[in-house]
Write a structure and sequence with these properties.
This protein has about 230 residues and is mainly beta. The chain has two helices and eleven strands. Strands 6-5-4-3-2-1-11-10-9-8-7 form an eleven-stranded antiparallel beta sheet. β10 and β11 form a beta hairpin. The chain is globular.
Length: about 230
Amino acid sequence: MARGGGCPGQPRLLLPLLLGGLLCLHAWAPLAAAPQARAGRGQPPTPCQAPLQWEGRTVAYDHSSGRNTRAAVSYDGPNQRLRLLEERKGLIPCKKFFEYIFLYKDAVMFQIEQVTKLCSKIALTEPWDPYDIPDNSTYEDQYYIGGPGDEIMVQEWSDRKPARKFESWVGVYTVKDCYPVQETYTKNYSVTTSTRFFDLQLGITDPSVFTPPSSCQEAQPVKMKDEC
């Protein structure tokens, strides 16, 4: 799978670019022991298989704007669909909240204003890029998040190529079930967006969330702004 440093058409990038972003990796301390020894008795670790369908929540942070935004997410890898529902956290004057439905097999994205149900229909120009660890990723580290008695082991991967290319993507995934924990993108040696995943549950409880509302039958062809 391709990993870009800021292409706005891919799901893992669309989420932070449309919503906003997160925390940096420096808050998580690495294990004291050699990570590769823990990962496989001296054998180089291989990327795990991330879940194909899940629901959860995200916090996305856009480093250029300094904005954090929370969203509920439904992710359907086999059908190349992604649905994001921005969460309201208190009253923000002149702030609009949207629902986004990405249908990559149809190459289209729907943006729905949550109050008025006004709808925009935008063509997707980038290919589907799932939430996973590509087979050609570079293993970076393995460590615990948390502390004794309350900790989760994760692995960190990137698209860095030794002696050839600095990383533009870093993904942190749990070792046990390969759930996404955090993804960070950089461009021109600066962090651009980062997204944290939490409260994940396997499966899609309501597949109808990927069906645009009837108001999208008269959708406008331009993206709506989130301010008055």
